[in-house]
Amino acid sequence: MGETILVERGGPIATVVLNRPEKLNALTRPMWKRLGEAFTELSADDSVRCIVIRGAGTKAFAPGNDISEFATERSNVEQARAYGEDMRGTIEAIGGCRHPVVAQIHGICVGGGLEIAGLADIRICGESSRFGVPINKLGLVMAYAEIGSLISLAGEAVAMEILLEGRVFEAKEAFEKGLVTRVVPDDQVEKEARETAQRIADGAPLVARWHKKFARRLRDAKPLSQQEYLEGFDCFGTEDFQIGYKAFLAKQKPEFKGK
Length: 259
Description:
Layout: E1 5-10, E2 13-18, H1 29-43, E3 50-55, E4 60-62, H2 70-73, H3 77-95, E5 101-105, E6 108-110, H4 112-118, E7 122-126, E8 130-132, H5 144-154, H6 156-165, E9 168-170, H7 171-176, E10 182-184, H8 189-202, H9 205-217, H10 226-231, H11 239-249
Parallel strand pairs: 2-3, 3-5, 4-6, 5-7, 6-8, 7-10
Antiparallel strand pairs: 1-2, 8-9
């Protein structure tokens, strides 16, 4: 594991940490690449039931890309395209992850940080968190892969407001815009994220993966095929369904196997 991207395991819950606290977890090109690799590896691991992504410390999730890197990594169109390919690959890896992803957001979450957090299924932040994409002040655009995920999250009107104004705004407004799922007191962010991840991990993992798959598929306006429609009933053939409904009737906690 690279030092700036840490992957920690606690049973079925994996935690991915943007680990550059001395720079508020500002992202570098190697961090983008390793982040994508980490999510690809975790997505393929059937023992994982939930992934928590966070920044190191409590000052920031991430403020976006490290501007000091621009002179060496993004100083011209060719370099920017290569850098953008790494970012696109990571966005696709997080967005396509089979397991539920919870973003644990402390402090600043802007630019590329917001792009990453926005790819999570559930986003929990503190009351003092701040959000925005002020790249218009740098003369930069948000490329297709990045803007697509922002529009998918908040809608085109909200995405355009965020991009055209370049404001940094508070957690309450982020919640109203649909950028975060839940706002809690700052000292409760980690606890809330962990409890959320545990509730997910306690559920049937195959069901969580199916729900993610179905939700992504429904973004496409193309009509469902008969095979796709019928897949919605495959859960009744799983061992987990037998475990789940029998435990419910017996008033017991189910112990799902992911089969």
